[in-house]
């Protein structure tokens, strides 16, 4: 039996580092450049926010914060204005957000959040005019879990909401990513080249899964590093190095390209001393949904047999011995 405490402690370790870095970079990413422009004005007391339920979305709470919306002091005329007044100021919106996106129902709101994060928008504002949002946290969590690429590339986000008038809300997001549009454009030809080299034509689904699993492990060298690129598809397809996020998103992208259903799973190693965060895949095999952890199956190139099958095609019952994850967001592996 493999002792998980001795496995590489990769996977999503950036959470603590990211939160520190996020605030270090905050002066640049969130509120401007100079000392005066960096001042944040607290939200006035009469601007309502949605109550958050601390008993739900355990993983989501590790990667997000509900905040009072910060105000960028971009010019002297912003002084003394409320958020609502600023959001009605086209100059302020243009300088702070670029533009205001709109959503008139919850389905469109969720799609708008998804689209913005898939476009790697660092900061965006949505004007929502649908029915009252009873649980903004659930809406954002559902959007966050809706896409493997969001789960794989968004290690931390902040969001907040103010009510402009009855039935109209402004919802604000600050998001940190492990990659960007330029890197993703670089990845595309690398993905195509790598996939073509697998020669999957004529193979069964399970054969394709096995080939992809082995190829991912043999392609990448595990690096326990804080560089964001090691936590992204760029780490795998361009650098050939990374932590569990790079393994799992490479598996996800290759499986999707092969037409195989797969989910990018975020959770924890249950047997680690410090609740080490981890990422792996939940794949629809011929036997049904099964957990596959390419990172933990990589024994290292120095081993005669680098590819282990110890964490390959696990049911939920077996996987629960090694991992904790928020099961309500994923299909069952029975």
UniProtKB/TrEMBL annotation:
Protein name per UniProt: Transglutaminase superfamily protein
Organism: Ureibacillus chungkukjangi
UniProt domain Transglutaminase-like: residue ranges: 236-296
Source taxon at top rank: Bacteria
Pfam families: Transglut_core
Annotated coiled-coil segments of the chain: none
